[in-house]
Amino acid sequence: MTSESTLTAPLENGFASDALLDPMVSKAIALIWHEATLLDAKNYVAWEALWTPGGKYVIPIDPDTDDFESGLNMIYDDARMRRMRVTRLTEGYSMSAVASARTARTISRFTVTANDGECVTLRSAQIIVGFKREKHLLLAADLEHRISFVDGEPRLDLKVVRLVNSEGAVTASGFLL
């Protein structure tokens, strides 16, 4: 876990990121790290339970778009599509998930872009290292998470994964990003 002193370290422009000390933001970051732990453990059923019913999981091709409905996406999942994806990954229907890569992911560089008291939106960076068949795979992405608080508990309402190589060839990974 990141220490409080790391979160309050001043940025190069002198801006102190006190927004990261807000209790809702701390819970949102804890949820994002918990999500990463579940994904590395391939506990997709528990991952699916982290979402709001209307939540969206998006991996756009265009790294600059916010119009996910009309743009081209690698993934644009609502609750029904997440359910189908988890079924494929856990019930042996996906060839890429058979003997899928072991992963270790790191999420850092958090910035708060919105906090209205009911939802917190954060941007961060993610590095995933996968290992399968004696080969390493490295993926890097900018993340955006919108965390909604339902009865005081944080839930994923939006997750956007902007791969740094989204416009190039991306091989099937057999795991969720």
TrEMBL record:
GO terms of molecular function: dioxygenase activity
Record GO biological process: 3-phenylpropionate catabolic process
Keyword line: Dioxygenase, Oxidoreductase
Gene3D superfamilies hit by this protein: 3.10.450.50
Domain of life: Bacteria
Family from the record: Belongs to the bacterial ring-hydroxylating dioxygenase beta subunit family.
PANTHER family: 3-PHENYLPROPIONATE_CINNAMIC ACID DIOXYGENASE SUBUNIT BETA, BLR3401 PROTEIN
Name this protein carries in UniProt: 3-phenylpropionate/cinnamic acid dioxygenase small subunit
Organism of derivation: Paeniglutamicibacter cryotolerans
